[in-house]
Write a structure and sequence with these properties.
- This protein has one domain: 2-Layer Sandwich (Alpha-Beta Plaits), CATH 3.30.70.
- Helices cover 18% and strands 11% of the residues.
- The protein has a two-stranded antiparallel ribbon with strand order 1-2.
- The longest helix has 5 residues.
Length: 55
């Protein structure tokens, strides 16, 4: 899950996702596709503002 209020749209998570499960919304924050996400945690670990939490 991405906290849209914390996300700064830097693209780090998009670049690091091994399954291309992350894209940007029209508003400019990251969105994770739960059908593609393998819950590896790479995006959460790479987020500079801690906007991503993998459940």
């Amino acid at each position: 899950m991405v906290d849209k209020n914390k996300c700064i749209g830097c693209g780090t998570c998009v670049a690091i996702c091994p399954v291309e499960a992350i894209s940007f919304s029209k508003e400019g924050y990251a969105v994770i596709d739960p059908k593609k996400c393998i819950k590896c945690g790479a995006c959460q670990a790479s987020c500079p503002v801690n906007a991503i939490k993998i459940n």
